[in-house]
Write a structure and sequence with these properties.
By secondary structure, the protein is mainly α. The chain is built from 6 helices and no strands.
Length: about 120
Amino acid sequence: MDIKALGRKHLESRLAPLREMDFARPQRGWLRAMREALGMTTRQLAQRMDKVQSAVVDMEKSEARDSISLASLRQAAEAMNCELVYAIVPRGPIDEMLRARDGDCGPPARPGEPHHDT
C-alpha cells in the first residue's frame, strides 16, 4: 500500500464514525444554542470574552448567516468551556469517491501540458 493510500485509510477510519452523526446546526446557531443551554446571557458571555454584549449578538447573527470566522467560534467556545470541533466529512467512503470521479484530479491541464496528480 503506498503512502497516499495509507493516509487515506487512516483518515477514513477517523471520519467514518462522523458520517453517522447528525451535525445539523440548530436553527439559531450553535453559539446561541450552547449559551442558552448553559443558562448564560449574551452579557455574561461577552464578559467572559472581554467583549461588549453587542459583539456577542453580532457573532450569533454572523453564525446564522454562515459568515462567522473559525477564530471567533473558537474564542466563544473557549469562553463557554467548550471545544470547537471542525471537520470536513465526506458523504461517502473516500476510496469510493475517488473511483466515482474517474481519475479527475482537478482542473484539466492546458493543451500540450501533462496532467499531474497532487
